[in-house]
Amino acid sequence: MKRKTLNAAMLAPLVAAGMPQLASAQELNYSFIEGGASWLDPDGLSGTELGFNVRFSADLINGFYLQGAWDSWDIDVGPFDIDADVYRIGAGYRYSLQQATDLFFEASYAVFDVGPVDNDGFRADIGLRHGFGERVEGRIYGGYQGDGSDGDALLGADLLFKFNDRLGLSAGVETFEFDTNVFRTNLRVSF
User: Domain containing 52 — which CATH number?
Assistant: First the structure.
């Protein structure tokens, strides 16, 4: 009996010493800016278009945060170059399911701008975000983007590898009804 108590007493300081690192490694950060390459694979056009993207998120209070994104491409359609931009700005709310897993909801003003056509509308997403240890976190989501009369369901997934607490590399894919696909690779700075 004394031996079990002694072993537990010796083990307790080691466990307590490791708890702050474990807790801080599992926190999900909602304040970042990232940017990088974006590939558009539209249905009906040959080839994939290379562009760029910028994304941000700013943690507010009580689980609320601001978020936004902008993707831009120059699409070659025969002899023409068409500018295509997809951007959104809005707010989100995260609900912690457990220490390293959040359920999130996002609502945004969204624009799909191709050449002279502007489709202003809205976007709504719901998903899960999870930290897989200190260096890796992932996110899966589904949503809808539309202009009131027409729209597309969407699915997406992102993976983030953290070099340290401030710097990381993310990769993601997003599909609009499996017709138009967007692939991204970004450098992320967290603050």
Answer: 2.40.160.40
Q: DSSP for 121-168?
A: EEEEEEEEEEE-SSSEEEEEEEEEEE-SS-EEEEEEEEEEEESSSSEE
Residues present in the chain in total: 191
Domain enclosing residue 168, as ranges: 2-190
How much is the pTM? 0.82
The tally of domains found in the chain comes to 1
Question: Which pLDDT band, with edges at 50, 70 and 90, does 22 fall under?
Answer: very low
Burial label, 79 (beta-carbon count in 10 A; 0-12, 13-18, 19+): exposed
What are the strands, taking DSSP E only, across 15-79? 32-41, 49-59, 64-77
**Residue 28 DSSP symbol:** P
